[in-house]
Amino acid sequence: MTPKTGPFPRPPARAIPRLMTQRLTIRRPDDWHLHLRDGAMLKAVLPQTVAHFSRAIIMPNLVPPVVTMADAMAYRERILAAAPGVGLFEPLMTLYLTEDTDPEDVAAAHGSGLVKAVKLYPAGATTNSASGVRDFDKVRPVLEKMAEIGMPLCVHGEVTTPEVDIFDREAVFIDTVLDPLRRATPGLRVVMEHITTADAVAYLQDGNDDLGATITTHHLMINRNHMLVGGIRPHYYCLPIVKREKHREALVDLATSGFSRCFLGTDSAPHLATDKQSPCGCAGVFSAPVTMSCLAEVFEEAGALDKLESFASLNGPAFYRLPANEATITLAKGEPAGVPPQIETENGPVVVFDPGRPLHWHVEDEL
Ligand code: DOR
Ligand code: ZN
Is residue 253 annotated as a catalytic residue, yes or no? Predict the structure, then answer.
């Protein structure tokens, strides 16, 4: 059984003049955290992002990971070759930080203009993170170089210590890793990726202009009850894991407030349905095809449709010191439309995120 609106009563949306709610034109959005994978999966999922988004920060957790500037250049070419049209989409590349990363290679990658950030995975934190960082002293020279050149560090903010409960991993990371790391490296620009807790919201709000955060589509819409009550839903399993309702509400409040250092990073992370519906299912929610419909729903419910453009299209470029897109998209409201339950790849289907509630908005002018 899929809950219609979840177990929690939702407040009525603030009244907005009817005409304004029917159609909304905003600058074309970007996705500041996206997994595209490679090969057959890349070919299948990339058009879903290109349909609505101009640019995306591309996660480097391939097997093997995208570690050097040369790796990133080669991966970028594979993405451009798989794109459905020339010039429609700009992949913003990242490097996977390892204990062997060379600061000079990072600086050269940044200088190319094609690599926009370095990704920190604590070793063992999530999918394909085995090459991540164990000893933070070993990456100090890279972090210092990044602070010097103004290159952002995208952080998967969870400790991996087995003793720490999975629901506490983000809060413990902030206190024991992130805050000391930022204090030790003044000027380092950090994106707290896919934040999931009120603790992360508070830390972000306390931070200076060098600190930003992304929020995913699914963390704005589901809590841990949606994943676990009435049956276990493997397609809601992701990392960081979804938390209590009060944390979801804190995320919605932040995103819909227009807070400038918070922006959309879908963390759309496709896995084959068979890899998720398994006794040890993979973490990841594939949300790219429905993200804009979902966000419009969330922002409308919060009476904040006027803040959707900041979250999806303006705040991200501002943090990354890039211009906002000139092009626009138009969202239209109508009868709830069925979302495609899955997309096909050469190796089998990938299930699309279903928030368990009707979606009234769709992108009218998708590519
Ligand atoms: O749910 C997740 N899936 N979280 C991550 O951090 C990685 C991602 C993936 O690559 O599948
Ligand atoms: Zn991710």
Answer: no
